[in-house]
Amino acid sequence: MSAAVETDERYDVVIIGGAIMGAMAAYFLTRDPAFTGTVAVIERDASFARSSTTLSAASLRQQFSIPENIRMSLFGLEFLRTAKERFGAETDLSWHEGGYLILASDAGLPILEANHQVQKAEGADIDLLDPARLAATFPYLNVEGLAAGAYGRSGEGWFDAHALLDCVRKAARRQGAHLIAGEVVEIVRAGDRITGVTLADGRRIACGSLVNAAGPRAGRVAGLAGIPLPVEGRKRCIYVLHCRTELPRLPLLVDPTGFWIRPEGAYQICGAAAPPEDGDPDDDFEVDWPLFEETTWPDLAHRIPAMEEVKLVRAWAGHYEMNLLDHNAVIGPHPEVANFYFMNGFSGHGLQQAPAAGRAIAEWIVHGRSLSLDLGVFGYERILANRPHAELNII
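== FAD-dependent oxidoreductase ==
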């Protein structure tokens, strides 16, 4: 960080991070008739081989505990449903409304019921099922130890993350965004303004505004500007399974023990939260095989007995951009460095909320506030005040 820099080029808005968050911000900026400036999106991994976007389970739900999270995901749903209108009749995002089924024990029932009331108030199509209805609806389930399950009858499911990212990036580029391959190693700040960035290859780029869309590296990027941000990468493994027994209408099921599973073509994919780790492991892409064999598989076979004979086909590892304060997004401008914008820390639900986040950032930059949704609860001010606003449904 330094006070001034000689620049090789200049853009009105520079976005650090070109995966789904940065792409959405560029897309909504360049399609706003009131925006007449220039946009550059800088991405360090042009292949996206290690991107949280492309390594995710690519799912969408309304089952959150905070109204604003539900509203953001409802816009994500609208975005997916209108993709052909936005990007052309040939667009195929493989959107499948298979629903979520979040299960609760007696201990978790009060939270599940309270969340369900919030979801109903926001118009989400979620049904609360008792054990008898769970067993009747999903006969392959072992309902032992369950008090209820919240099931998304519509508006929840999964899609093709690669296809979505490709559509949005191409659209942003057609609309005038400049896509730059490079890694930001310096953010130049003069008092309460960001003036530019320097790339690892020495390129110097001046900017009018800077957007942090750096995913699991967002905390490091903010640190380049002298701004603390408690966002770090947290590894999550996804295992591809083949069950010999047919599991009709299998939703994305979330068990009280922590594992989740959903269909993926002729297979299933599943995952579970990893044990607590020290440090920031965002460069660790090694699959944790013992996690599946020793923990996830036994829990899975207990809940779905047919999984006793499951075949583990393959696996991969990716990263959540985890907000260590409260597992919720940080969105909007810095209260003091007013041309520095956050879209970080979604803690596992970023892909589905990227359309709403990108639209909000574009509105803040162009119009001075988020017009479509009031997202003030996710502002950076709570980080400064160490005032968590926790999301209870983290998967």
